[in-house]
Specification:
Structural class: alpha/beta
Distance between the termini: 20 Å
Number of helices: 10
Shape: elongated
Strand order of the largest sheet: 3-2-1-4-5-10-9-6-7-8
Strand content: 15-25%
Oligomer: single chain
Radius of gyration: 20 Å
């Protein structure tokens, strides 16, 4: 079993390498560092030439960082030709987990992007779970906070819930199961001011309890906090993610629209989450 991490020579990529190395040791996996060298029609621009020259050096630095972060983990380094997103999607077919930094380098200009196109692409189309690691140097709770899982109440979210329990158990961390509904969605069914919020809250607590039923017996070591709130899911998860070491979400939201590999909540969360986000592909 192996964990794959994308390397491009940037600081965000090194953050991802550090996180992936520790995670690989935790899961007893080998670590495969993959650096893609983009190709372009000749003549290549000076920006692309510089990127091509820097990639091998960045890969070497990543190997050193991985071994320093998690000694004993088997580390493999691979330099592949192609666009980073497509290379990593190919790697995802045989990986247990794919890890990328939230911000990447524009392949032509070298400018860092708020959410790199590579991170968004692999989160949307990867064949395995994906972790997007934000820039978070110096966070004291990066390895000690709780694991947070977003529970949407549908069976589509079961793989994410299973992954969240496993992560909490391996990390010796409490699990916060969050079920959030938006007043905007409720207003579609009720006239303004007519909704019985207390009745809705009780019903949503029941939904969360049903989704968590049975997991306590399988993971008796995991302490679970149940949170039901009326809020916008992304806003709530971002706020509470400030104290978390990991947020786990499903790749598709309620209803699981065929062909939509990542839901709007998961996608929006990748842009602003303060901690690593694990996106688990729906079955």
């Amino acid at each position: 079993m192996r964990e794959v991490v994308g390397v491009d020579g940037s600081e965000p990529a090194l953050e991802a390498v550090h996180w992936a190395a520790v995670d690989a040791r935790l899961h007893r996996r080998s670590l495969r560092l993959v650096c893609a060298v983009p190709q372009a029609p000749e003549p290549a621009g000076p920006g692309l030439d510089e990127i091509k020259a820097e990639r091998p050096r960045g890969l070497s630095e990543a190997v050193t960082a991985a071994r320093a972060a998690a000694g004993g983990v088997e580390v493999e380094q691979v330099l592949r030709r192609g666009m980073p997103g497509e290379v990593l999607l190919d790697e995802s077919q045989e990986a247990e987990r794919l890890v990328v930094g939230a911000r990447g380098l524009n392949e032509v200009t070298g400018v860092r992007l708020a959410l790199g196109s590579t991170a968004e692409l692999v989160a949307m189309r990867s064949r395995c779970p994906v972790v997007v690691v934000p820039d978070s140097p110096g966070r004291e709770d990066a390895r000690t906070g709780p694991v947070i899982v977003g529970v949407d109440g549908s069976r589509v979210g079961e793989p994410a819930l299973a992954a969240a329990y496993e992560e909490a158990s391996l990390r010796g961390a409490p699990l916060v199961a969050v079920h959030v509904w938006s007043d905007v969605a409720v207003d579609e069914w009720f006239a303004p001011g007519a909704a019985d919020w207390e009745a809705i809250r009780v019903d949503q607590q029941r939904v969360l309890a049903e989704r968590l039923a049975g997991w306590a017996a399988k993971y008796p070591d995991v302490s679970v906090e149940r949170v039901v709130a009326r809020d916008r899911p992304v806003r709530f998860l971002v706020e509470h993610g400030a104290r978390a070491q990991l947020i786990v979400v499903g790749s598709r939201g309620r209803g699981g629209i065929t062909g939509m590999l990542i839901g709007s909540t998961s996608r929006a969360l990748l842009h602003c989450a303060p901690c690593p986000v694990l996106v688990v592909r729906a079955s």
